[in-house]
Design brief:
The complex is a heterodimer of chains A (473) and B (1481). By secondary structure, chain A is of the alpha/beta class. Helix content of chain A is 34%, strand content 16%. Chain A has 19 helices and 16 strands. By secondary structure, chain B is of the alpha/beta class. Chain B has 47 helices and 52 strands. In chain B, the strands form twelve sheets. Chain B has a ten-stranded mixed β-sheet, with helices on both faces. Chain B has an eight-stranded parallel β-sheet with strand order 32-31-41-40-38-37-34-33. In chain B, strands 7-2-8-1-13-12-14 form a seven-stranded antiparallel β-sheet, with helices on one face. The chains are: A alpha/beta (473), B alpha/beta (1481).
Chain lengths: 473, 1481
């Protein structure tokens, strides 16, 4: 372990394709680190006695260990260590906001280790070498159905299959992947890696069933009749709506209704769907989905893109009461923002105006927040923005209500499915995992949750003694 | 631990004067003994003399046979008349049984009013028995058998009231629970002028390893002992194993067993063995040589015959090892000897009239200087023997040569001993297939961390890995992981009474060589007894083992036994059956002639799990012991589970003679082969390095217990268990302490099966798929820790924002261990005192925080910024910060306006004495003597030269760039009376400072603490095993010592029960983090609380655990200016932390109904296990830990002012001169000194330092002319401006901590003995001296100028280990030196006259006696010669040295006979500094 790398080597700036080039296609923006640079960057890791990154990572990725291996050029072994905690590092290495880096000890007084880049490099190495299937050495004879093929469902399926259970993964859509397939833009996540992973899972015995909509109690009961356990990983797909006059005008859409068709087109499908070529676009919501809308709009050739956020402009550095290693509440800029458009903060949408039933402008007012976080409109700051399209990217409120109601499961105050620590719901043999349980969250949390519930299901199905825990790969 | 001595007449004339002088000698050593809570009850005193024939003939109503034909016994009997009658009958029966006759009894006249009340309360009936010789045969042997038979019979009939202090036809012992001055007032016989003897052997006791009783007073029948036998447990066990091998034909031999009477002290046990062997026919000198051999293994100058004697006897008996000054007699000869280390002082004087006086100190009897023929000291491993029959002193070499040539030992060895290297080679060594190796790694519980953190560094560097910041991981029994059984055992270590050894710098006394195989009867002396397999060290490679297996040699016939058990069925039953079967197979194998039993887990497969190898080995060992067959075969562990040093040490400690860690060896080979690990070496080198690391580590483990040889460590069981159940201990680890009991075979089997499943339950896991571990560095899925990202983040947020809610979150995460238990206190709850009281009624936080101290962390281990930050914070709140070892910049002693004081209230005195000057000491509110530290009890340390920058060098009085070594022991504390002396010395310098002594928790620490209290400490710190901030070997951080809860509770109880608690204050530390922790510490007995890690975390530490690498990224534990600039801690952060803790404590106090902390102290009845403890913790039994003291009395320290001390010579001088020193006026005084005048000069030094700071006074301002024999520590800490001269001689520790003063000691002008051949000063002279000059016209003892960092000294000869650990200064030796000169010497210069060796041999001997590891020997250049000449001239001027004058007379010729000794690193550093000067200039 280089002991002083953090003092002598700077953090490498992120590598991306040039903007003029990348906005003309939907291919990945980020570029990998060169091999030498990768090793050098890994040598910035301090191998902490208490690696805060390792806690910062919801998966508990053993970051110091693979950093050590990477700086010594041992990518094969690094991939093994990485895979011991993370089923899909090729995905988190691309789309994770990297809470690990926020809590990296080097970031206490400098720039964090490029943990995400390193993770991605290791994962790419593994994908490049071919993801070897690791089928279970034994079969338990137990059958598990998993509903929903997003990251939680996939992780849960892989873990259970590797523990020797017969796993069927059901997806109501036409292809496997959930948000990974149709939610995240291709310029952030190349679908090639998802397909490679699905091939590995299939070889490990996971049975994929698409077009299978578990839409109510009867369907659930049917599954229960044929399986020993059912895991619901149905996500939190209900988007937060905007309750203002003019919401029902044409040209006002939920973000997913805009993003998903583009992803399908990228996959070669020919279909209609919303496009914003030559249009003035307003994106409401300052989060990752909003940024995805901004980037996709650029790629479709929008004339102008404005992104509005109701919260105030965050500071660029941590405040005193938001100290390391907590998640820093600071301004984040994605590659999509670098590509153009404008951002505005503390803007509250009051109404949408239109002509001939189609949106033409957005009326808003500036707001301020007091110390307690209470919002106040600032009189005299009313503004209007002309537009052709409004995309609502204000987050998700929970599982789709109709589905959750139909399944008849106990839910918490926020409408999420209620489970115990092992993932069991109020119904016998029914488990739930991922956003459906925790609400909208990160891919990395979904994977962690899928793994957690897999352990719960496994424990419920078998006396776990005699099987290796924790080291499932 | 005591004072001892003898007076003997070579005239062969018995007279009463000898007895009187013996008693006077005893009384003159009174300061070396001790009294307990009753000041009139001593720890014990006694005298061993010729049978006073005249007294008995006059006193007895019956007539006695001629002298020699009757025996007199000194007998202690029960006070209950019935019991006494039974005891007397037992003795009468035993006498009859052996064919002799009791003539009658005499009630010994005693005056009970002369002794203390406590002594009176346990006073036995003391009677003498007289036995007439009525049968043929060996008379003394018969008396031995009578004594043993009677004692055993009395014991079996249910009493332990019968104690026979002596029973002999020649000698008798008078002893008891007495102070020296009481002995002849209690035993009126001793005042009878007709009470005559040719010799008197006396002893005054200072008890620390056992509580004082009448029986435990010395002398015993043959022996008086000052010191401690560290190897006792192994010696006892092996001795009892030997009983089975005694010849059955001898009719009386049955009465010999048990050879060692139960319940005695270590000294009593050794006496029993000596007595037994003497009765067996060996001579006294022979017995002493075989039991306490000198360090012969690595002694190039030893005669071959003598070496063969020792080698032969090493196959018979393991050394009784430990610091020991032994006096012994059989009535025909009286002798004195030291252990191989020479750790106790023993001096002697021979007079012209033929009198020999030997004692711990010189000057114990007044002898006319003109009468002295020889004034000398007994040297390590040598013997002073007076033949009382022929009336002469027998030379050490002569007696040893005589004994060594009695039998052809060398030929016997050559013909019988089997050398491993001589066994036939085997064609191939086995190698495991990869898959099996990987399965085994997992199945034997290896983690990724084990490979990465432990094995890889061992293989790459050949040494154990280092870590930092203590251990906050869960105890093994609380872990949720199937940890190896090894983890449940903790190493014990020596503190205070038995110093640890430095296995690196004093390697010459250490030995790992071991003999495997059978022994015959210890009473025999036959060639076959050395038919054993000789191993150079106990680590066998796989090839070694294969050769052994295949050998046809009769001495090494090997049998391998699989130690496995099935996966099916009830775990406990399956394991028990397997262990029974294993033990039986071992016994069968022995019966069938196997000489070596290999206990192996190599055959592990998918159907059978491995029995933990420690359990398997120990089970076989104990079974064979019980069967009386243990000595017939050696045990070897072939273990896939053993990886670390600790594992191997445990296997040896529980009976294995050697260990083959085959899996670890394979793995390091694989690591070297695979590019994965980048070890940069080939496989054979990796294996060699790994073995080397194990060997070094073993030496360290041995030496921390003060044990020198592996044969004494073998089977000694110097471990204690935490969380292992009673049944398992009693059956398989008999004799091991297990404070809490805990897991049984069911849990052990369950763990073994869980581990097995990890390897064999599925696919073979690659090394990167092993369990993550997490013991050394925190891991999310790893071992439970208390310091985690959330706790650190919450604490730092709390103290920086002064945010109680964040603190509450932190405290809740630490305190609530219901989900994942980690500490013992985490399993506890409070029992309310009374109903809750309002918070306002509880003692305020401002008063509570005064009880808080920060830990001893040196400037050097942590940065200046971090160090001063803690001091500022603690001074502001009235708590105490601790300087740590390593001095303190005197600029910090003066508060700065506005900023507050950066002065550490506690100044530490640690083994290296860095920067411990008079000025440093007078600037302390508390002086803390660090005996041990939690992270590495029993070990020294090292600050590598590259970390010694200018600032650190300045406060440590060292040279920048020169490595600084902290020795494992304090070289002036080898025993408890030494500690008392050091306390006395420190008090003499600084009367107002409180003196505390820091110990580490282990079983038995309570008894040690009682000794420390008796030694006069004001406060005692009990540190938990888990603390520690600096760099330490990982195995020491994790495997030595026990939690403070156990040690503190025991200490509190012992002190209360001995009426000593009121004398001292108790502090505890070791991972204290919250107010709840403090509350439990108070309830268990602490009234003050130490914190180290937590205030560092409050200052910004994030537990990088990189302190040892100087890369601390937050500027706490680094000296790198770039990193130090990152330090962001502020005093307020630390202050906020302590107030949060205090407030949390107050809330608990309010809830429990305690208004003050004092009320809480020592109330374990308010602690109970909490409800709903789950898992294995349920099995723990806290009864013993939480038991309240069984005696009333103070529960907390009541003596608020520091202990006083006796008036000294300095006090008188200071009184006479009034304020002259304060005013800086010159004074000169003449004084006469006796050996009881100790630390002369220290008081004056303190006065100078207080008034004139470190610069002191102009030369010769304070002059003291002394005559006589000075007591210990003459001239200690003497400051600049002082000049002390002494005409006479001085004892040990002269010029300790010399701080600029000048000392001159020379023989009396009337003396006729040759100065340069005589002892003028004792051992450990100029220890830790920082500046000043010293001139000694005569020879010094062992460890002259040890750790000297700046003093200049001239001496005319010295003993072993001269200039050890020296870092600066100049030493001139004008005579012969002992062995191991310059060991660990990293700085300074020595000029040594190389034309005589100690034995008067030829020139050039010095090179062989010098430890050249760090130093070069070279001729003097002109500059050296000029310097040397000036020093010899000053020496002659100050002492009148004839040796000096002779050399000066022909100086030009003399220069060529000198050798210059310079440390290489020092030469480089000085060169660099000079270059820099030239450059700058």
């Amino acid at each position: 372990m280089a002991e002083r790398g953090f003092l002598t080597i700077g953090r490498a700036p992120k590598r991306e394709r040039p903007i003029p080039e990348r906005v003309r296609d939907h291919s990945e923006v980020a570029l990998p680190l060169a091999p030498d640079e990768l090793r050098e960057q890994a040598s910035r890791c301090m191998d902490c006695g208490i690696p805060f990154c390792h806690q910062g990572c919801p998966l508990g990725n053993v970051i110091p260990e693979w950093n050590d291996l990477v700086q010594r050029g041992r990518l094969d072994e690094a991939a093994v260590v990485l895979a011991s905690t993370n089923n899909f590092p090729e995905i988190t290495g691309r789309v994770c906001p990297a809470p690990c880096e926020a809590s990296c000890v080097v970031a206490l007084d400098g720039d964090a280790v490029t943990i995400k880049e390193i993770e991605r490099s290791i994962a790419e190495h593994a994908v490049g070498a071919g993801l070897t299937p690791r089928p279970a050495a034994i079969t338990t004879g137990k059958r598990v159905a998993i509903v929903g093929s997003g990251p939680a469902g996939l992780a849960c399926a892989q873990e259970l299959a590797r523990r020797g259970h017969a796993v069927t993964l059901l997806e109501r859509d036409d292809r496997i992947g959930g948000l990974l397939r149709y939610g995240i833009p291709d310029f952030k996540l190349d679908r090639r890696v998802l397909d490679a992973r699905l091939a590995q899972m299939a070889a490990e015995g996971v049975r994929f069933v698409t077009g299978a909509h578990v839409d109510g109690r009867a369907a659930l009961d049917a599954l229960l009749a044929a399986h020993d356990a059912v895991v619901l990983a149905i996500g939190a797909r209900a988007p937060r709506d905007l309750a203002v006059p003019g919401r029902d005008l044409d040209g006002v859409h939920f973000a997913m209704d805009f993003l998903t068709p583009q992803n399908r087109r990228n996959a070669g499908e020919e279909l209609e769907g919303i496009t914003v070529t030559g249009e003035r676009v307003i994106v409401i919501g300052g989060g990752d989905t909003g940024a995805d809308c901004v980037g996709t709009s650029h790629r479709q050739g929008a004339a102008a893109v404005v992104q509005l956020e109701v919260m105030s402009l965050p500071a660029t550095t941590r405040s005193r009461d938001n100290p390391w290693p907590a998640w820093p509440l600071v301004l984040r800029t994605s590659s999509s923002h670098d590509e153009g458009g404008t951002r505005d903060w503390a803007v509250l949408t009051k109404s949408l105006r239109g002509e001939a039933g189609r949106v033409t402008a957005l009326d808003a007012i500036r707001v301020a927040f007091d110390a307690g976080g209470k919002m106040r409109e600032l009189p005299g700051t009313e503004l209007s923005i002309a537009c052709d399209r409004v995309l609502l990217a204000m987050g998700f409120v929970g599982p789709e209500a109709a589905l959750a109601d139909a399944l008849g499961l106990a839910r918490d105050a926020r409408g999420n499915i209620r489970t115990d620590a092992a993932g069991a719901t109020s119904a016998p043999r029914v488990f739930a995992a991922g956003d459906a349980v925790r609400g909208q969250s990160l891919v990395v949390w979904a994977i962690a949750d899928g793994r957690r519930v897999a352990r719960g299901v496994h424990a419920a199905l078998t006396a776990s003694r005699g099987l290796r825990e924790g080291a499932s790969l | 631990m005591c004072g001892l001595g003898f007076v003997a007449e070579m005239s062969r004339r018995a007279h009463h004067g000898v007895v009187r002088d013996g008693i006077e000698l005893l009384q003159r050593l009174a300061h070396r003994g001790a009294a307990g809570s009753d000041p009139d009850t001593g720890d014990g005193a006694g005298i061993l003399v010729d049978i006073p024939d005249a007294v008995f003939r006059a006193a007895l109503p019956f007539s006695l046979p001629p002298r020699g034909e009757y025996a007199a016994g000194m007998v202690f009997l029960s006070r209950d008349p019935d019991a006494r009658a039974r005891e007397e009958r037992a003795l009468e029966e035993a006498t009859r049984h052996h064919g002799h006759e009791i003539l009658g009894w005499r009630s010994v006249p005693v005056d009970a009013s002369a002794i203390g009340a406590l002594a009176r309360s346990t006073q036995p009936v003391v009677r003498q028995v007289f036995i007439a010789r009525r049968a043929d045969g060996d008379w003394e042997r018969a008396l031995h058998r009578i004594r043993r038979r009677a004692t055993e019979a009395a014991r079996r009939s249910g009493g332990d009231g019968l104690y026979i202090a002596s029973l002999s036809s020649r000698t008798i012992v008078y002893k008891g629970l007495l102070l020296p001055e009481q002995i002849d007032r209690f035993y009126v016989d001793l005042r009878d002028p007709t009470f005559a003897s040719r010799f008197a052997l006396v002893h005054s006791r200072f008890s620390t390893n056992t509580l004082p009783t009448w029986e435990r007073a010395h002398p015993f029948r043959r022996l008086a002992h000052n010191g401690e036998i560290n190897t006792l447990r192994g010696n006892q066990r092996w001795m009892s194993a030997r009983e089975a091998a005694l010849p059955r034909d001898a009719a009386d031999v049955g009465d010999a067993a048990p050879i060692i009477a139960p319940g005695g002290s270590d000294s009593a046990a050794l006496d029993d063995v000596i007595d037994f062997l003497l009765a067996g026919g060996r001579s006294l000198a022979h017995v002493m040589m075989m039991l306490v051999p000198e360090a012969w293994a690595d002694h190039p100058e030893m005669a071959p015959a003598r070496r063969a004697f020792y080698e032969y006897h090493a196959a018979l008996v393991e050394p009784w090892d430990g610091p020991a000054a032994l006096l012994f007699t059989d009535g025909d000869a009286i002798g004195a000897m030291l252990d191989r280390n020479g750790l106790r002082p023993l001096k002697y004087v021979v007079t012209r009239t033929g009198r020999v006086i030997a004692a711990s100190e010189l000057g114990v009897l007044d002898v006319d200087d003109a009468e002295v023929v020889t004034k000398g000291r007994v040297q390590p491993g040598t013997m002073l023997l007076v033949d009382l029959v022929r009336g002469r002193i027998v030379d050490d070499d002569a007696i040893k040569t005589e004994i060594a040539t009695r039998k052809p030992y060398a030929r016997w060895i050559a013909e019988n001993k089997v050398d491993l290297a001589a066994l036939p080679d085997v064609p191939a060594i086995y190698s495991l297939p990869r898959e099996l190796r990987e399965r085994m790694l997992a199945a034997f519980g290896a983690t990724r961390e084990d490979l990465r953190t432990i094995l890889a560094p061992m293989a790459a560097k050949g040494e154990e890995p280092t870590g930092s910041m203590g251990n906050d991981a869960a105890l093994a029994v609380l872990s949720d992981r199937p940890l190896p059984l090894f983890r449940y055992f903790k190493q014990q270590f020596a503190q205070v009474t038995n110093p640890p050894i430095d296995p690196i710098r004093e390697e010459l006394v250490m030995s790992l060589a071991c003999a495997v195989g059978g022994e015959g009867s210890i009473l025999d002396e036959t060639p076959e007894q050395c038919r054993v397999l000789e191993l150079p060290h106990p680590i066998l490679t796989t090839r070694d083992l294969a050769r052994l297996r295949g050998s046809p040699a009769p001495g090494v016939l090997a049998r391998t036994l699989d130690a496995l058990f099935p996966l099916e069925g009830d775990g406990a039953e399956a394991l028990r059956a397997a262990l029974d079967d294993l033990a039986q197979r071992a016994e069968d194998a022995v019966d069938e002639g196997a000489r070596v039993i290999i206990v192996s887990d190599r055959a592990i497969d998918e159907r059978r799990a491995a029995i933990p190898s420690l359990l398997a080995v120990s089970a076989v060992h104990h079974h064979l012991l019980r069967a009386g067959k243990r000595l017939r075969a050696g045990l070897i562990a072939e273990s896939g589970e053993a990886r670390e040093v600790h594992d191997v040490a445990l296997l040896i400690g529980y009976g294995a003679s050697a260990v083959n860690p085959y899996l670890a060896l394979e793995m390091v080979g694989e690591m070297a082969t695979s590019a994965r690990w980048e070890l940069g070496i080939e496989a054979p080198a990796a294996a060699k390095n790994y073995v080397q690391a194990l060997k070094k580590g073993l030496l360290k483990v041995l030496s921390k217990m003060g044990i020198s040889t592996i044969s004494s460590y073998h089977g000694a069981q110097v471990f204690e268990a935490i969380g292992v159940g009673r049944d398992v201990i009693d059956r398989y680890f008999e004799g091991t302490a297990s404070a809490l009991f805990g897991i049984g075979l069911a849990e052990i089997a369950d763990d073994a099966r869980r581990r097995h499943a990890l390897g064999f339950g599925g696919d073979a896991p690659s090394p990167d798929e092993l369990d993550v571990g997490g013991a050394y560095a925190w891991r999310a899925d790893g071992e439970t820790h208390l310091w985690t990202p959330p706790t650190i983040a919450a604490l730092q947020r709390a103290v920086r924002l002064d945010d109680p809610r964040s603190y509450a979150e932190y405290a809740a995460r630490i305190n609530d261990q219901r989900e994942r238990p980690c500490t013992l206190r985490g399993l506890w709850d409070f029992v309310p005192h009374r109903s809750n009281i309002p918070l306002e009624d509880v003692e305020p936080a401002v008063s509570i925080v005064r009880r808080f101290a920060t830990g001893a962390m040196s400037f050097g281990s942590i940065s200046k910024e971090a160090h001063e930050n803690l001091a500022l914070a603690m001074n502001r709140i009235g708590g105490k910060s601790n300087s740590g070892e390593g001095g303190e910049d005197e600029a910090r002693f003066v508060p700065e306006r506005g900023a507050g004081s950066r002065r550490s209230a506690i100044k530490q005195v640690a083994s290296a004495r860095f920067g411990v000057t008079a000025h440093y000491l007078v600037n302390a509110d508390e002086i803390q003597i660090k005996i041990a530290q939690g992270a590495k009890p029993g070990e020294g340390g090292q600050l590598p030269g590259h970390k010694v920058d200018v600032a650190i060098a300045k406060v440590r009085h060292a040279t920048p760039g020169v490595t600084l070594i902290s020795p494992p022991p304090h070289h002036d504390i080898y025993s408890i009376e030494d500690l008392a002396e050091l306390i006395f010395d420190l008090r003499a310098v600084s009367a107002k400072a409180r003196i505390s002594v820091k110990l580490v928790a282990e079983t038995g620490v309570g008894t040690i603490a009682a000794g420390v209290a008796k030694a006069g400490a004001d406060a005692i710190v009990i540190s938990g095993h888990d603390g520690g901030t600096g760099a330490s070997p990982l195995s020491s951080i994790h495997h030595a010592g026990v939690p403070w809860e156990i040690g503190l509770a025991e200490t509190q109880r012992t002190l209360v029960e001995n009426g000593l608690r009121g004398r001292v204050r108790l502090q505890t530390d070791g991972q204290l983090k919250t107010g709840r922790d403090v509350a439990f510490a108070a309830l268990l007995g602490a009234e003050e609380f130490g914190f180290a890690t937590a205030p560092l975390v409050a200052s910004g530490c994030i537990m990088m655990r990189k302190c040892h690498l100087n890369t601390c990224p937050v500027g706490v534990a680094t000296q790198d200016p770039v990193l130090r600039a990152r330090f962001k801690g502020q005093p307020e952060h630390v202050i906020n932390y302590f107030f949060f803790v205090a407030e949390e404590l107050r809330a608990i106090m309010a809830r429990l109904g305690f208004a003050t902390v004092d009320e809480m102290v020592g109330r374990p009845d308010h602690v109970a296990p909490r409800d709903g403890i789950a898992g294995r913790a349920r099995l723990l039994d806290f009864g013993a830990v939480l038991a309240p003291a069984t005696a009333a009395g103070p529960r907390h320290g009541t003596a608020h002012k520091p202990h006083g001390r006796a008036r000294t010579v300095d006090d008188d001088v200071l009184f006479e001169v009034g304020g002259a020193i304060a005013r800086g006026e010159p004074i000169a005084r003449k004084v006469t000194l006796h050996n009881s005048d100790r630390a002369v000069g220290a008081g004056l030094a303190g006065e100078i330092a207080r008034h004139h700071g470190s610069q002191g006074l102009p030369p010769d301002t304070v002059i003291l002319h002394a005559r006589g024999t000075a007591g210990q520590s003459f001239g200690a800490f003497a400051a600049t401006g002082m000049a002390l001269s002494l005409e006479g001689a001085a004892n040990d520790y002269v010029g300790k901590g010399l701080s600029g003063g000048v000392l001159a000691i020379f023989p009396p002008r009337r003396a006729r003995f040759s100065a340069e051949a005589s002892a003028i000063v004792g051992n450990t002279v100029l220890y830790g001296a920082t500046s000043g000059r010293a001139f000694f016209a005569g020879r010094a003892g062992e460890r002259f100028a040890v750790r000297n960092s700046g003093a200049t000294a001239v001496v005319e000869g010295l003993g072993d280990h001269g200039c050890e650990y020296m870092t600066g200064g100049v030493v001139v030796v004008l005579g012969a030196t002992g062995r191991n000169f310059a060991a660990g010497m990293s700085g300074g210069v020595a000029y040594v006259l190389d034309d005589v060796d100690a034995a008067g041999g030829a020139r050039g001997a010095f090179a062989a006696r010098c430890n050249a590891a760090l130093v070069d020997l070279e001729p003097l250049d002109l500059e050296d010669a000029t310097k040397l000449r000036a020093l010899i001239e000053e020496h002659v001027a100050r002492t009148g040295s004839t040796q000096g004058s002779r050399l000066l007379a022909s100086f030009a010729a003399a220069v060529g006979r000198f050798v210059k000794v310079t440390p290489r690193e020092y030469k480089r550093a000085i060169g660099a500094a000079r270059k820099l000067e030239v450059h700058v200039g």
